[in-house]
Amino acid sequence: MRTLIIALTACTALAACEGTDLERGALGAGIAGGAAMATGGNVAGAAAVGGLAGVVCDDVTPQLCR
Question: Which region is the signal sequence (predicted)?
């Protein structure tokens, strides 16, 4: 099951570099929250950090996330 979650997370992460800040933020929060749930981590904290990373990724690293 964890392998499936990791594979889906990787595919979603690649798709997260498209769209608006809101879309990337939602995907980042979902990916991070799902990864935290799969590994037994803090889901709320991971979702907050993942959402923030999704929103600012194109501003901080435009060469990686356009």
Answer: 1-15
